[in-house]
Amino acid sequence: MGHVYLSRQLTPAAMAAANDLGVPLVVHDDPDRPPSREQLLSGVTGASALITLLTDRVDGEVLDAAGADLKIVANVAVGYDNIDVAAARSRGVAVSNTPGVLDEASADCAFALLLATARRIVEADRFLRTGKDWIWGPQSFVGLDVSGGATLGIVGLGRIGMAVARRAAAFDMRILATGSRASSEEAAAYGVEPVGLQRLLAESDVVSLHCPLTPDTHHLIDAEKLAAMKPTAVLVNTARGSVVDEAALVAALQNGVIAAAGLDVYENEPQLHPGLRSLENVVLLPHIASAGRATREAMGALAVDNVRAVLAGEGPRTPVPETAHSARPGKEL
Questions:
Q1: Distance spanning both ends of the chain, measured CA to CA
Q2: 287 catalytic, yes or no?
Q3: Does domain 103-284 fall into CATH 3.40.50.720?
Q4: Catalytic residue flag (residue 269)
Q5: Which residue is catalytic, options 119, 269, 297, 317?
Q6: What is the pLDDT of residues 45-87, one digit of tens each?
Q7: Superfamily assignment of 4-101+293-311 in CATH?
């Protein structure tokens, strides 16, 4: 049996679990940066299992470099748009992700962005740190009243979207949502109203994105969709950057098409559109939605459990769905 390749050092507990697999580990030696393409191709050669992150593009070239002994690609993320799932399956390689364990942390982050952006918290903090004279005034940093009637539109009501809906219900928000689960009994219990995307965009004070990145959702939120939103609306994205046309978003923020945005993910991550940093009406986070200590430990541990199961001749604990879309060829995340 070949080695297990890890494209990045995981949390301490997850690394301890990996060391208990009883299989040699090859770990990319830079804890802060992903492997280059050349390092990835070299590291996977002869591997029985790959433990990868969303920063690693795993396509046919990588799978072939690993060789015939490769049994599983375990992605330490709920998303898997960085993996060519069809190419893996055609080679008999299982693909797993880490659903469920990051729902609450990701929903916390989405709601934190919602509040920070709608109430202009970060903008006000930046102002106060300038040392400029100030005095309380009735129009100072006025933002959106979130609780007690603001409308939240959730695009893609999956596990994380449902966790956001629970938080919104506690704030007595009106909740609209797209997706098959929007019509479920669980959604109804939190007052979710299933609607189409156009109505959601037109009626929502805050639009929060929770759909996976697929060929169908690439640039789902483009200039036309932004124009369909209220000029007072806030856009929150903790899903994948390419769900939004970032250039169109910058133009919309600059021109008052929408009021503000809270972003944790970016179209050409880790690069940002050059217009984002200069805007006061956007809150920017470096992809930290799942960055709770216990959550990151659980994500790594689940990836290792998937590897352990497959190397033992079983199926992965959390395989990606049979209907999973493959990553778009050559797309860097």
A1: 31
A2: yes
A3: yes
A4: yes
A5: 269
A6: 999 999 999 999 999 999 999 999 999 999 999 999 999 999 9
A7: NAD(P)-binding Rossmann-like Domain (3.40.50.720)
